[in-house]
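Quick note —
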Amino acid sequence: MERRKRDRRNFSEYMRLMNENSGELVGHLADISHEGFRLESKQPVQPNLEFAFRIELPPDISKKPFMVFMARSKWCKPDVIDPALFDIGYEITGMDASDAESFKALFEKYGSTKFIRGSAEDYLWGR
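Predicted structure written out below.
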């Protein structure tokens, strides 16, 4: 497994990610990279599960009210600060080109380069 450190940023806005198929809240965006993201969730998720996510888009990012994309869970562990939550890392596996531009805009506009909470794992994706 190849491991790479990715440019990632804390996410400064409170954004919910919903399961597109069930409509249920999966978690809140905690940090973001160009290839993936970390959610804080009340429920643990096993690695290597594929999800269809829906995220609402702010009007300054897109004219579309939301976007849907596919992502695969890569790891899950209890949150360091709140043990009632789980930190879950996801790798984006499918996204329309227009939505990729919106995701990049989210990264650039709302991603903070200030302190990123986490471990030495950072965002290390295996491909």
